[in-house]
């Protein structure tokens, strides 16, 4: 799809952070955006400001995923919502804190990917699944986050195999931000934890990633991935403020 105008895009977790940057970039291209998130007040404010359609609900519930994909019939689904990890070293984690990302992010990904395969999306449909640089390099202070984000990346690959076997014409791709985003609430918390461990200021820690990648810039990268044919067949795409978009897996 070389134009997003009038394309139906469902995005989870689009009321704040990176997701909001993606929503703003999509609206600027006149896409028909549906934002699914928990916070009804944030969603109402977003609806007033950008004119998007909003749905308040728990994205980890299979029934919600099935209903939205069936009734909206989106051309694109962007799985962006993520729970904040408990920032602590391994010996200070509880099993509940360690697995919280699995219970939220991976569970949600599981249900929405299944909905996209079972309904299914129309031919040419795209599902973008947000992973993390932690899936590449690990993240010792964030419990099970690195493994959960790697699992989401693998699930995109598994889903492509199913889509090919069933001849659905639907593509699943993992999005991998390769730096902590200090402009988001979750990113600032993570950066603070690592900065304290290193005994340096948060700004100094974030500077180690090079140029920042604010949410709106991230959103522009997502738009490029959806509209530039060069990225159509990629299985995983990394994004960084310094280097832009890079194909991590074909």
Summarize this entry quickly:
The chain has 250 residues and is of the alpha/beta class. It has a single domain (8-249), classed as NAD(P)-binding Rossmann-like Domain (Rossmann fold, 3-Layer(aba) Sandwich), CATH 3.40.50.720. The protein has helices at 17-28, 40-50, 62-72, 95-118, 134-137, 145-165, 185-198, 202-207, 215-227; strands at 8-12, 32-37, 53-56, 76-79, 126-130, 171-177, 236-240, 244-249.
Would you give an account of this structure?
- The protein is an alpha/beta fold and 250 residues long.
- It has one domain: Rossmann fold (3-Layer(aba) Sandwich), CATH 3.40.50.720.
- 46% of the residues lie in helices and 17% in strands.
- An eight-stranded mixed beta sheet has the order 3-2-1-4-5-6-7-8, sandwiched between helices.
- Strand 7 (236-240) and strand 8 form a beta hairpin.
- The mean pLDDT is 97.
Q: What is the structural class?
A: alpha/beta
Number of helices: 9
Rg result = 17 Å
pLDDT averaged over residues: 97
> Mind summarizing the main beta sheet?
8 strands, mixed
Describe the global form. Answer: globular
Query: Looking across the biggest beta sheet, what order are the strands in?
Result: 3-2-1-4-5-6-7-8
What is the CATH level 1 assignment? Alpha Beta
The count of domains is 1
The span between the termini is 19 Å
Number of strands: 8
What percentage of residues falls in helices of 4 or more residues?
40-55%
By CATH, the superfamily comes out as NAD(P)-binding Rossmann-like Domain
CATH architecture: 3-Layer(aba) Sandwich
What is the name of the CATH topology?
Answer: Rossmann fold
What fraction of the residues are assigned to beta strands by DSSP?
15-25%
Low-pLDDT windows of residues: none
């Amino acid at each position: 799809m070389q134009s997003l105008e009038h394309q139906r895009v469902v995005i989870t977790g689009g009321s704040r952070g990176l997701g909001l940057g993606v929503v703003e970039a999509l609206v600027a291209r006149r896409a028909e955006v549906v934002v699914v998130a928990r916070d009804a007040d944030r969603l109402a404010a977003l609806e007033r400001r950008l004119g998007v359609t909003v749905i308040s609900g728990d994205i980890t519930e299979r029934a919600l995923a099935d209903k939205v994909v069936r009734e909206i019939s989106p051309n694109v689904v962007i799985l962006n919502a993520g729970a904040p990890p408990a920032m602590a070293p391994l010996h200070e984690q509880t099993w509940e804190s360690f697995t919280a990302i699995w219970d939220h992010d991976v569970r949600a990904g599981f249900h929405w990917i299944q909905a996209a395969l079972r309904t299914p999306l129309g031919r040419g449909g795209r599902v973008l699944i947000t992973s993390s640089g932690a899936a590449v390099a690990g993240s010792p202070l964030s419990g099970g986050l690195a493994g959960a984000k790697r699992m989401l990346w693998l699930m995109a690959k598994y889903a492509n195999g199913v889509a090919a076997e069933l001849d659905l014409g639907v593509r699943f791709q993992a999005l991998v931000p390769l730096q902590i985003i200090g402009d988001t609430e979750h990113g600032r918390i993570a950066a603070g934890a690592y900065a304290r461990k290193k005994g340096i200021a948060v700004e100094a820690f974030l500077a180690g990633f090079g140029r920042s990648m604010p949410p709106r810039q991230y959103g522009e990268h997502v738009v490029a991935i959806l509209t530039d044919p060069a990225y159509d067949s990629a299985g995983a795409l990394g994004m960084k403020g310094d280097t832009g978009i890079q194909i991590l897996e074909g």
